[in-house]
């Protein structure tokens, strides 16, 4: 516990012109107060008994400033962060100053699903000194965990093309205030992020993040796990600031706004995350999100024509494709989680095309799957194998999935009409589509998919046409047979302390009860 007597000169959250946030105080500034800093956060109590609390979870910086700075009367992130950086950069005599700024993310009405702002408070130490106050806050807020450089990969052309703006106006200033060292790279083409990750000098970095959609994040993971030193590379924390049009990973981490995502990176807390390997023609890639075929893959790729629409592009593409639904034919081999152990090969006997990446215990042998317990040869209108609950920011595909549960959730439909397909996408955020009798599910450790083509006819055979693509976390791969396997807890993902993975199951259960 650290305490001091301070003068609070201004607090932008108490301004009546903020983003609709409820002011915590209407005190007339400046006001003298008793400051307390603990692992719970920062609080101060005025002479009138008014207590102001700021949770440690949302504090991302504390900085000494030379002189009193003009008050900020907004919570708008870019404006507040710009003013904060100006004050820090004008800091000419930090050792002698008694003034310091406290920086925190301010939730709108306490909700993480609403646009947050940036809170900034100017305080003056009367006893301990600004430097001692700042050091106490930094320690209490758990800052300074990332001492080396942060690799930041920006995709300036992807999704809504907002990545560079998000970096310059939110992420970069937050990182600078927090004292992080940034190594910025802009991706120039597909697979550029993979190339950077494969050659990264790991000992120079504390973490690697992307400001992008899920595609570049997929490339980052694939690059790290296809290095000769993948066992070391996999320990590098990875994170994402969503700037795409789907932003599934951001939704799964509950960091849908750049301020929350940047805060999560600054804190440096990680959770284990499963990845899965996709083996095709003896080439192996690794990813984090999903494998899609049939309707969902069609919608994802055909929606590229509507990227200018942002998140609505998926809805438009889905309606267009559902009105003329294709029937696919294929063979699916499933290895359920509860039966996986008896089909496992030892790592020493698991041959691989190369020594790169986690050993494949169930899919290293091209014929290993022929003896699995579930083999399905039929038509498909819908196929998804997901590693995470949300496959986009508005589609809760598998509420029971978790970051590190060692399983893929396979969801498929053998015969689905256009009307049924519309029903399945009518309320995507609820997860209710899993209740329909034409939807089948299975939790697996591994699967093999052999696509056999598609037809406009319901038998999937008459006038059959060749498949072109499968979809791996947004990346196109050829529609050839694939062997897919989960690798439990391989990566460390930067995740916020407030992430409650059980929330998605509760959300789906509530939707089911109110249906």
TrEMBL record:
<dbReference type="Pfam" id="PF19279">
    <property type="entry name" value="YegS_C"/>
</dbReference>
<keyword id="KW-0547">Nucleotide-binding</keyword>
<dbReference type="InterPro" id="IPR045540">
    <property type="entry name" value="YegS/DAGK_C"/>
</dbReference>
<dbReference type="GO" id="GO:0001727">
    <property type="term" value="F:lipid kinase activity"/>
</dbReference>
<dbReference type="GO" id="GO:0005524">
    <property type="term" value="F:ATP binding"/>
</dbReference>
<keyword id="KW-0808">Transferase</keyword>
<dbReference type="InterPro" id="IPR050187">
    <property type="entry name" value="Lipid_Phosphate_FormReg"/>
</dbReference>
<feature type="domain" description="DAGKc">
    <location>
        <begin position="145"/>
        <end position="282"/>
    </location>
</feature>
<dbReference type="GO" id="GO:0016020">
    <property type="term" value="C:membrane"/>
</dbReference>
<dbReference type="InterPro" id="IPR001206">
    <property type="entry name" value="Diacylglycerol_kinase_cat_dom"/>
</dbReference>
<dbReference type="Pfam" id="PF00781">
    <property type="entry name" value="DAGK_cat"/>
</dbReference>
<dbReference type="InterPro" id="IPR016064">
    <property type="entry name" value="NAD/diacylglycerol_kinase_sf"/>
</dbReference>
<keyword id="KW-0418">Kinase</keyword>
<dbReference type="InterPro" id="IPR017438">
    <property type="entry name" value="ATP-NAD_kinase_N"/>
</dbReference>
<keyword id="KW-0067">ATP-binding</keyword>
<dbReference type="GO" id="GO:0046512">
    <property type="term" value="P:sphingosine biosynthetic process"/>
</dbReference>
<protein>
    <recommendedName>
        <fullName>DAGKc domain-containing protein</fullName>
    </recommendedName>
</protein>
<dbReference type="GO" id="GO:0005737">
    <property type="term" value="C:cytoplasm"/>
</dbReference>
